[in-house]
Amino acid sequence: IRTGNSNASGGFVAANDQEYLVRVVGRAADAEALGDAVVAVRDGRPILVRQLGDVVVAPKVQRGLGSANGHPAVVLAVLKQPDENTLDVTARIDALLDDMEGDLPPGLVLDRRVFRQADFIATAVHNVGVALRDGAILVALILLLFLGNLRASFISLAAIPVSLVAAVLALDALGLTLDTMTLGGLTLAIGSVVDDAIIDVENVFRRLRQNRALPEARRCDPFQVIYTASVEIRGSIVFATLIIALVFVPLFFLDGIEGRMLAPLGTSYLVALLASLAVAMTLTPALCAYFLPNADAVAQGESRLAAWSQRAYAPLLDRALGRPALVLGTAAAAFALSLAVVPFLGRTFLPEFNEGALTINVVTKPGTSLEASDRLGRRVEWVLLGFPEVVSTSRRTGRAELDEHAQDVNAAEIDVMLDLSKGDRGREAFLDALRAELATVGGANLTVGQPLSHRIDHLLSGTRSAIAVKVFGPDLEQLRVAATRIEAVAKTVPGAVDVSIEQQVDIPELEVRADRDALARYGLGTGELGESVERALVGETVGALLDGQRPIDVVVRLADVIGGDLSALASVPIDTPVGARVPLGAVAEIVRGTSPNTIVREGGSRKMVVQANVAGRDLASVVEELRARVDDEVALGDDVFVVYGGQFESAAQAARTIAALSALVGVGVFLLLVAAFGSARNALLMLVNLPLSLIGGILALALTSGTVSTPALVGFVTLFGIATRNGILLVTHYEHLVAVDGLDVAEAVRRGSIERLVPVLMTALAAGLALVPLVLAADHPGNEIQAPMGVVMLGGLTSSTVLNLFVVPVLFRRFGRVGAR
Fold first, then answer.
1. 3-class secondary structure for 248-260?
2. β-strands 346-347, 707-708: how paired?
3. Model pLDDT for residues 645-673, shown as the tens digit of each residue
4. What residues contact 275, with CB distance under 8 A and at least 6 apart?
């Protein structure tokens, strides 16, 4: 068949001064023509292919099936290229499908929404955008209440759109897009980008009021006042912004998934922050010079809120300055209390996503046929469709011919689209009920995950679950025994769900043991015997027919001689070089037995994996309890050892990286503070912001999720830089009052604290309240990564601002140094 179905070159001939190419056309046009190919000639009569067998169009060996909502379907997965935008690609695919639908045969229906990542992305981007919008509104309200003047508020708020536009242009130049991470960075920055402008405007506004209050003969030119006021606080805002930028550096050194996810967030935050610094140093003073010199509001007093704040703060400050031991003792006690809470906080890698979809893996016993596995998968689908929250299901059992997602016919993956609004319970209650109902489906291990988290687990540990207990050893049977014991323990650990063992079991096989003496008599080798058996049972591709531009493989194989009778395998005919045809049983012994369906190795060692997800408890505590109980209750056997991997392993690595980099960042922050104050002593005083900010951050986590994740750790690091800004504002103003106005330290501390109260409160409230929409919508799609950072930053800003207003004045009056430069 191979030689009778091909075209060939015949060289060329020349005639009449013309050269002609010669092409031998022998390719069959269709199956009927292929059947007319001559195999041999006997007694002068040709023997054709169709006389020896049937030439039919038939499916190749099928190793996969698809289903949608419990009914047979073809499931087509479309993957985008790495540098393409998912929403744009989805829109282009929709346009193509719109054109295609009109030409579909009757009864063929396209369902585009069995799984659409674009829906989750669009929802997530919308939710982050809403948090960004609402945060900006809250910032505007804070400015209006404290400044009490539309012009001054407008000048400060101008920093938001200008900084964000500059950030977007910079992100585009860097090749980044507006996604949930970059928008999340802008959301976290929305309160901070206005801080530098607030400080500048407030100082200018206050200096203009003071200048207007002077006798006319002593008044300075308003433009000179604006210039002097802007220069007065320029050093403060530059060093404060540089410190905040510095503490974001650890984001760019995180490896793996967390680094890829958080780096765009850090980039957008830093770009927006640096843009806001440029705005505060250029546009803000210019707008002040344009709008404020002749404004009537300059002659008025401070706003009611600002005046009330200063009146309420002054007596409290006097008491604090009179009782330094009480103030410092209270702060120390609060810090100690927060540290005591830390051991009770859970730990995890990344917050759980709310993708609006599930990925359910159904794995039955290896060796199960495709048809039986399909029936089991359909049962699971009908169970899922019984829940009102389930919108649709799509299932892939086994694998398609060219699918790179390799899985055997005993495994199925079901994508489930959800609409939780159709039920009357929360997400956790729904998942608990779902797991309980799926447990009634016998004969399979089921793992409930989500599309994104499922793929993250695959990348981290090669398993489908958050916890991967890897059991290593040289003997496969020992590994099975140890893994089974660990599985039994894991099922009793609170919080561990979807516990299962990676399927490495013995499956039935027929072993063809070659009889070398018999093979030698017929001139056969063991390799030729194997090829003959494979050709007979599986077939051999010997060419292709062309259906237009589409090639169709031509496969030659023996008709089904088994017919469900395994003993018939011995009668499979084997051609020999000596011309005789003998049954397989004459040259080999056929033995029934078992063998492993798969053997997995890592680092050269055999491995089995016990996998589990976590529900209702933090990841770290589940792993720690599981580890302790395995050590106490499981006898692993000789040469068997266990390694705990998955998200837990990645969380620990990320924590180590952040801790190491934070120490280096701390040194850099200290050096910047020394440069800002010209005094190591004053720089050390600023480091008090670290424990003051930790207090609120820790307590905020304890009162919300109760779990420390990688984004929360990043939040603690960045919080220190943001909280340091207020301390810099206070201390630089103390130095100015002593050096320029000639006040003593005690009076400078009191007056400087009261004068800086309003900008401190405005910047802290702007940065903090801008995070409130994000924190309140923490469970909405798109906010999962940023929300833990927002919780930590909001809580830390609250504690550091309140304590800063009392602890820093007390410490500076006692230990501060003025005139070091």
1. CHHHHHCCHHHHH
2. parallel
3. 777 777 778 788 888 888 888 888 888 88
4. 162, 163, 166, 167, 170, 193
CA distances from 17 to 13, 14, 20, 285 (A): 10, 7, 10, 89
Among residues 211, 134, 794, which one has the least CA distance to residue 786? Answer: 794
DSSP state, 584?
Answer: G
**pLDDT at 821 > cutoff 50:** no
What value does the mean pLDDT take over residues 453-460? 70
What span, in angstroms and rounded, lies between the C-alpha atoms of 675 and 667?
12
Helices 647-677 and 619-633, axial angle in degrees (round to 10):
130
* Distance separating alpha carbons of residues 283 and 158, to the nearest angstrom: 9
Q: Which of 250, 244, 273 is nearest to 693 (CA)?
A: 244
**pLDDT category, 296, cuts 50, 70, 90?**
low
d(CA 329, CA 326): 5
Contact 724, 688 (CB under 8 A): no
Q: Which of 741, 388, 26, 94 is nearest to 749 (CA)?
A: 741
The residues facing 485 across adjacent strands are: none
In 10 A of CB 82, how many CB atoms?
Answer: 5
* Residue 587: count of CB within 10 angstroms of its CB: 23
Does residue 566 carry a pLDDT above 80? no
**E runs forming strands in 580-701:** 581-583, 588-596, 600-602, 605-614, 641-646
d(CA 719, CA 723): 6
Q: Which of 808, 780, 524 is nearest to 688 (CA)?
A: 808
Question: Bigger pLDDT: 717 or 395?
Answer: 395
Identity of the residue numbered 244: I
Please report how many Cα atoms fall inside a 13 Å half-sphere around the Cα of residue 692, on the Cβ side. 29
Strand partners, 359: 415, 449
Amino acid of residue 697:
G
Task: Give the burial string for 473-504 (b: 16+ CB within 10 Å, else e).
Answer: beeeebbbbbbebbbebbeebebbbbbbbbbb
Cβ neighbors of 136 (< 8 A, separation 6 or more) are 160, 190, 770
In sequence order, the β-bridge partners of residue 547 are 550
Task: Give the mean pLDDT of the chain.
Answer: 83
Q: What pLDDT shows up at residue 294?
A: 66
What pLDDT, on a 0 to 100 scale, did the predictor assign at position 380? Answer: 92
CA-to-CA separations, 776 to 135, 350, 499, 534, 711, in angstroms, rounded: 11, 18, 33, 63, 17
Count of alpha carbons within 13 angstroms of residue 356, beta-carbon side: 19
Please list the alpha-helical segments (H only) found in 353-469: 370-385, 427-438, 451-461
DSSP 140: H
Per-residue pLDDT, averaged over 617-642, amounts to: 86
Rounded CA gap, 449 and 359, in Å?
5
Residue bearing the bigger pLDDT, 676 or 67: 67
Distance CA 306, CA 312 (A): 10
- In three-state form (DSSP H/G/I as H, E/B as E, the rest C), the secondary structure along 453-469 is HHHHHHHHHCCCCCEEE
Per-residue model confidence as pLDDT tens digits over 589-616: 888 888 777 778 888 888 888 888 888 7
pLDDT band at 298 (very low <50, low <70, confident <90, very high): low
Structure tokens at 515: 């009889």
φ and ψ at residue 82, rounded to 5 degrees: -55, -35
Can you tell me the mean pLDDT for 35-46?
Answer: 88
Those residues whose C-beta lies under 8 Å from the C-beta of residue 330, and which sit 6 or more positions away, are none
**CA of residue 47 relative to chain centroid, distance:** 64
Q: Record the pTM.
A: 0.75
Q: Check whether 297 has a pLDDT greater than 60.
A: no
Residues with Cβ within 8 Å of residue 58, at least 6 apart in sequence: none
- Specify the length of the chain in residues: 821
Within 10 A of 382 (CB to CB), how many other CB atoms are there? 12
Q: Which residues contact 374 (CB under 8 A, 6 or more apart)?
A: 65, 67, 397
Query: CB neighbours (10 Å) of residue 141?
Result: 14
